[in-house]
Design goal:
This protein has five domains: 4-25 and 136-202, no CATH class; 39-124, Beta Barrel (OB fold (Dihydrolipoamide Acetyltransferase, E2P)), CATH 2.40.50.140; 215-231 and 677-714, no CATH class; 248-454, P-loop containing nucleotide triphosphate hydrolases (Rossmann fold), CATH 3.40.50; 464-639, Rossmann fold. The chain contains 23 helices and 21 strands. The strands form four sheets. The chain has a seven-stranded parallel beta sheet, with helices on both faces. A six-stranded parallel beta sheet has the order 16-21-20-17-19-18, sandwiched between helices. Strands 2-3-4-6-5 form a five-stranded mixed beta barrel. Helix 6 packs across helix 22 and helix 22 packs across helix 23. The two termini are 21 Å apart. The relative contact order is 0.10.
């Protein structure tokens, strides 16, 4: 391959799009078509219609009113039409010689002053009309359609000649109603004159079905391959021991921990623990996703899994995406486990990027010696210098916030003492997520994962009341905030992240912070009037650009009740647990995604008091909410069930975006939609194991063909 330095600009652009091999080019399908195969009589054109027609030049002139422009009058069919060009080169004038016949393409406008067309494409008439529709491809800056089209079509030709589209599916096992791949591609890249545009866009067309089927099969084959590969890798078998003998310190940690929990596990927690315990006791690495709505109690499940690992004499690591969240886990798990561990000469270590050197060095040495049986921290954990003595279980909270790479790295951390050992052991992997994936999607995307689901909330929760407030009722809302504080409760006030501009974000949050600080000064006075002895309403501010240590301090102050109100950008989105917070205000709720809103709402209703979530919204430009925004807000009012929310989110956004946002790096599908193409999905699922068992050669060839596309996604 050429080194990128010697590439021309359009070649570089192709490179950027991942379009280098004939195969990747051939699989880059048009997203729409233009019909240049025929001419439309000018008199048949509708106002605003885009047409191709031929006409004779009557005159041309450069005029300066209202603005410098080239004005060309042409005659076609007895009608005149004025062409206008605002950008033109003197050299272009040549083609507009009076009497020349031109082939023009553009949008016709009819008005008081006759027909006109702005910036049509111009060709000298005379050549034959093409006999296929013109494909239009997704492109990028510096890459002209004509160049891209040529590249794609020559890629298609080359790949066909190289035999890259020969069938990889035994004929008797083909799904119904699909065309052979070459024909499908030929049809989609170069549809014959007369092909209806809606046919080309019909997802049930046999050409599209071929691509979808192939893609879904590739997805299933590769996930199955990963699963098979994993079954050949060894992992430490963490037998759970069930003896229950006093005293506490000599009992297995799992038993001791259970005995001292302040609550009974829910049925769902018991069930998923059973699933996890069974996996952990096997000598092949677990690869399990634990999904459960916010507040469903995943942490204690993680703690008990860690205990099983430690009981077997191995180390466990728990990694969280933010320092706040990691620290919260550290506090909670330490309070549960530290006394039990120290009786065994073990401890819980804390590891994060912002740690002081001395503290970090200590943690690192405890991790290396194995004294740290449990390590909790952020992605600092996957850095080079971290060496585990014997890591056997890696738990990743809010797994979708980590990239694939990061998850893989943690898995590779098990090598004893950091040295390559003869018997390569891989740790078990438990991933946790508060955003449930609907079953239909899970089946497609996680064929390589086992899924455990917490579908029950711990008892004693008071449902959160969700209310919608228009922006003009802000003052009323602030009264509510005061009321909550007087009652001794705390309040979250969330400001939206503004993606384009971090500084705007900050301004927004800072202003709200100031506004509330001022408004709540009143509160002190009122409090005094009401006889409350000195109520200092403290308003804290938390945003993404604060240093970690500061964030932690603010969060700590809120947790300890020193702050009454916490104004925050979405840093509190995941995981934080402050049971005394009973009111959550989400400002500009219309800007948040549905699952984000749901996650945020999950921060309240954690104590026994009745809690409220207020969705404060502002109307858009036209005095209305967008369709999707109102669907999201409506869903929030109608349900609190995380699975239902996920389903609605999926309906609103479609699976591509739904998963794109969540599963960074998950193998996205380009053509198929696992919901719409359920029959092909089922076909692929049934076929994949058979292919590996009976047609392994074809399976490999199939994967190789589609790998091109996958690596492209991973780049994206
Ligand atoms: P999430 O699944 O969102 O991570 P957590 O693990 O933070 O949820 O649990 C939420 C709260 O519920 C915590 O305060 C936790 O101690 C409590 N909790 C967990 N399991 C139970 C249970 N079985 N009974 C009562 N409370 C529980
Ligand atoms: Mg959690």
């Amino acid at each position: 391959m050429d080194s990128p330095k010697t590439l021309s600009a359009p070649q570089k652009a192709l490179h950027k799009l991942g379009l280098e091999s004939p195969l990747s080019l051939a699989l880059h399908l048009p997203f729409r078509y233009e019909d240049d195969t025929q001419l439309t009589p000018l008199r048949d054109a509708q106002n605003g219609e885009s047409i191709q027609f031929e006409a004779v030049v009557l005159s041309h002139e450069v005029v300066y009113r209202p603005k410098r422009q080239l004005k060309v009058d042409v005659l076609s069919d007895g009608l005149t039409c004025t062409l206008r060009f605002f950008n033109f080169y003197p050299s272009q004038l040549k083609q507009f010689q009076v009497g020349a016949t031109l082939r023009l393409k553009g949008e016709v406008k009819g008005g008081m002053f006759g027909l006109s067309m702005m910036h049509p494409t111009v060709q000298i008439a005379g050549s034959a009309l093409p006999d296929t529709l013109t494909p239009i491809y997704a492109s990028t800056a510096g890459l002209a359609q004509s160049y891209l089209r040529k590249a794609v079509l020559s890629g298609l030709k080359k790949a066909t000649e190289l035999g890259l589209f020969e069938t990889t599916i035994p004929p008797s096992l083909e799904p119904p109603a699909v065309w052979p791949l070459v024909e499908a591609l030929q049809f989609l890249h170069l549809p014959k004159r007369g092909t209806q545009l809606h046919t080309l866009q019909d997802p049930t067309h046999p050409a599209w079905r071929r691509l979808k089927a192939e893609e879904l099969l590739a997805q299933q084959l590769s996930q199955m391959k990963a699963r098979l590969a994993r079954s050949k890798v060894a992992a430490p078998a963490l037998k759970s021991s069930l003896s229950v003998e006093p005293p506490l310190t000599s009992r297995p940690l799992t038993q001791a921990l259970r005995a001292q929990l302040p609550f009974e596990l829910t049925g769902a927690q018991e069930r998923v623990l059973g699933e996890i315990a069974k996996d952990l006791s096997c000598a092949t690495p677990m690869h399990r996703l634990l999904q459960g709505d916010v507040g469903s109690g995943k942490t204690v499940v993680a703690a008990l899994a860690a205990a099983q690992c430690i009981d077997a004499g191995w180390q466990c690591a728990l990694m969280a995406p933010t320092e706040i969240l990691a620290h919260q886990h550290f506090e909670k798990l330490s309070s549960w486990l530290e006394p039990l561990l120290s009786a065994r000469g073990l401890k819980v270590a804390w590891l994060t990027g912002s740690q002081k050197k001395k503290e970090k060095t200590l943690s690192l040495s405890e991790i290396e010696s194995g004294q740290a049986a449990l390590v909790i921290g952020t992605h600092a954990m996957i850095q080079e210098q971290v060496r585990f003595k014997n890591l056997a279980l890696a738990i990743i909270d809010e797994q979708h916030r980590f990239g694939v790479e990061q998850r893989l790295t943690l898995r590779k951390k098990s090598q004893v003492g950091g040295e390559a050992s003869q018997d390569e052991l891989e740790p078990h992997l438990l991933m946790m997520s508060a955003t449930p994936i609907p079953r239909t999607l899970a089946m497609s995307y996680f064929a390589d994962l086992d899924v455990s689901t917490l579908d029950e909330l711990p008892p004693g929760r008071t449902p959160v009341v969700t209310k919608l407030f228009a922006e003009h009722k802000r003052a009323e809302l602030i009264e509510r905030v005061k009321h909550q504080i007087r009652e001794g409760f705390q309040v979250y006030w969330v400001c939206p992240l503004i993606e384009e501009s971090e500084s705007m974000d900050l301004t927004n949050a800072t202003q709200t912070h100031l506004e509330l600080s001022l408004a709540l000064k009143d509160l002190t006075a009122l409090g005094e009037q009401a006889g409350v002895s000195r109520l200092d309403a403290q308003v804290g501010l938390l945003h993404s650009r604060m240093p970690d240590a500061e964030k932690k301090a603010v969060m700590h102050a809120f947790k300890e009740g020193h702050l009454h109100v916490l104004v925050s950008t979405t840093v509190i989105e995941v995981g934080v647990d402050v049971p005394n917070a009973s009111l959550m205000v989400i400002e500009h709720a219309e800007r948040f995604g549905l699952s984000q809103l749901h996650q945020l709402r999950g921060r309240v209703g954690r104590g026994s008091a009745a809690s409220t979530c207020v969705l404060l919204y502002a109307l858009g430009e036209h005095g209305r909410l967008s369709e999707t925004a109102s669907q999201r807000l409506k869903a929030m009012l109608q349900t609190q069930d995380g699975f239902e929310i996920a389903k609605r989110d999926l309906d609103i956004r479609g699976p591509g975006e739904f998963l794109g946002a969540r599963q960074s790096g998950a193998s996205l599908l380009r053509y198929a939609d696992p919901l719409l193409d359920m029959d092909l999905m089922t076909w692929a699922q049934a076929l994949a194991p058979k292919m590996w068992a009976e047609h392994a050669q074809m399976a490999l060839a199939h994967l190789e063909r589609w790998q091109t596309l996958r690596s492209e996604y991973l780049k994206a």
